[in-house]
Specification:
The protein is an alpha+beta fold. The protein has two domains: 158 residues, Creatinase/prolidase N-terminal domain (Creatine Amidinohydrolase, Chain A, domain 1, 3-Layer(aba) Sandwich); 278 residues, Creatine Amidinohydrolase, CATH 3.90.230.10. Helix content is 34%, strand content 14%. The strands form five sheets. It has a six-stranded mixed sheet, covered by helices on one side. Helix 4 crosses helix 12. The longest helix has 28 residues. It is globular. The chain binds glycine (GLY) and manganese (II) ion (MN) (2 copies). The site of glycine has 6 residues, from loops.
């Protein structure tokens, strides 16, 4: 079916208008509450490589992308004045070295007053003459000082906008579902490549090809870890050759659609049944945690419950020998699960606003002993979060535990035998509803068996 007629295009076309209306309403409320009359949002700047004539790949700023799905137009702007149609000032330089931003087409363009300009400085003429009541969000640049804006990145306004971004519109959910669909296609291909003996780099290539995305189009650098590399939480190397003996793969890789991310992790045992059984236990624990998600749940409680469940898995697998309560109270579970149980997901993979108590300000602190948790809010309908429990065998943390009272709780010979597998993480993306959650990742895997 041609793209123009597909159900997906139809869904985007029918939900974009209400999405933009929500974005406008949030912006109008935030502007009024912060004392501004208009909002100018920058798409982002190209960053130069030091003493070189190249730039880093362009990544559009999230506060811009929430307005329009434009990812190839540095130094463009959205101008919003409450009550008026938003204006997109699109930088399309005449350039025979690089391809300029595409002329927008598709379901969203009629919602904007689009003004192409040949260079950044020319954008000023497409904006109101008087910007003294307006706020700017984005990186500063040379000529901006002369544009007469009231404030740059005022924190009260930025925080109000960040707070609101946690709850996704129907349009955003459609984009996030598609990002999961594309990401799971990549994961299927990656698992296949792993079973065929591929290196980490070759697994990445299989992932990219199945997603139909370039590396720079991914929402984050894929974590593709064979064997003990799985113990490095954000492992960034992509080994060009497989190790002599291959035991396991941990792959944390997501795709992007319309600027929205998926964040998906799976772990595989090549042929060891004992490690496969441990992966299965973590998978069951992950599903149990997902089953507890609905609007009204305090994410800090999810973090604490994850540690209680992890203690049970560690004990059942004979990795620790103490009781569940002791394992949590002594910090022994944190040796094996040293990261947060999940985070907000959206335009950014670790999306903004995770700690905010209210639009006005104030943060909700993390529970004691959980310094890497990125979300402390009570879940609301429309929030999209990851659920990503794990069990890792991390030398650095094990050495620290060996030196204190936690040493007595750990079955060191068992840990020694499992270390070659690195670790396990199972990560899905969940859209919170009033009564439960929609598992975007498992639904996407199930739809493409
Ligand atoms: N991919 C990074 C994370 O799971 O948070
Ligand atoms: Mn994640
Ligand atoms: Mn991840």
């Amino acid at each position: 079916m041609p793209e123009a007629e597909s159900p997906r295009t139809h869904e985007l076309a029918s939900t974009f208008g209400p999405h933009l209306a929500t974005v406008e309403k949030r912006a109008a409320t935030a502007l009024a509450a912060s004392g501004f009359s208009g909002l100018l949002v920058h798409s982002g700047a190209l960053l130069d490589v030091f003493q070189d004539d190249r730039t880093y790949p362009f990544q559009a700023n999230a506060p811009f992308k929430v307005w329009a799905p434009v990812d190839d137009a540095p130094d463009s702007f959205v101008w919003f004045s409450p009550g008026a149609r938003p204006r997109l000032v699109l930088n399309q330089p005449r350039d025979y070295w690089y391809k300029s931003a595409r002329t927008p087409v598709g379901y969203w363009v009629d919602h904007f007053d689009i003004r192409p300009v040949p260079e950044r400085a020319a954008a000023r003429a497409e904006l109101p003459g008087d910007l003294t009541g307006a706020a700017y969000i984005g990186e500063p640049f040379a000529e901006l000082a002369a544009w007469g804006l009231k404030a740059m990145n005022p924190s009260g306004l930025v925080r109000r906008l960040d707070y609101a971004r946690a709850a996704k519109t129907a349009y955003e959910l459609a984009c996030l579902r598609e990002a999961s669909r594309v990401g799971t296609a990549g994961h299927r291909a990656a698992a296949h490549a792993f079973r065929a003996g591929a290196s980490e780099f070759e697994i990445e290539l299989a992932f990219l090809e199945a997603c139909g995305l370039r590396e720079q189009e991914l929402p984050y650098n894929p974590i593709i870890a064979l064997n003990e590399a799985g113990a490095v939480l954000h492992y960034q190397l992509l080994g060009k050759r497989p190790p002599p003996e291959v035991y396991s793969l941990l792959i944390d890789a997501g795709a992007q659609s319309g600027g929205y991310a998926s964040d998906i992790t799976r772990t595989y045992s090549l042929e060891d049944a004992d490690f496969a059984a441990l992966i299965e236990r973590v998978d069951q624990m992950q599903l149990a945690l997902c089953a507890g998600i609905r609007a009204g749940v305090d994410w800090r409680d999810v973090q604490l419950r994850a540690h209680a469940l992890t203690a049970g898995v560690l004990r059942d697998a004979d990795i620790i020998s103490c009781g569940v309560e002791e394992a949590v109270a002594s910090g022994t579970t944190r040796v094996f699960l040293p990261h947060g149980i999940g985070h907000l997901l959206g335009l950014e993979v670790h999306d903004v606003g995770g700690f905010m108590r209210s639009p006005e300000g104030g943060d909700i602190p993390r529970p004691d002993g959980h310094p890497y948790l990125r979300l402390t809010r009570v879940l609301e309908e429309g929030f999209v979060v990851t659920m990503e429990p794990g069990i890792y065998f991390i030398d650095q943390l094990l050495e620290e535990a060996r030196a204190d009272k936690r040493a007595a709780h750990i079955n060191w010979s068992r840990v020694g035998a499992l270390s070659k597998f690195g670790g396990i993480r199972i990560e899905d993306d969940l859209a919170v509803t009033r009564v439960g959650c929609e598992n975007l990742t498992r639904d996407a895997f199930a739809a493409n068996p």
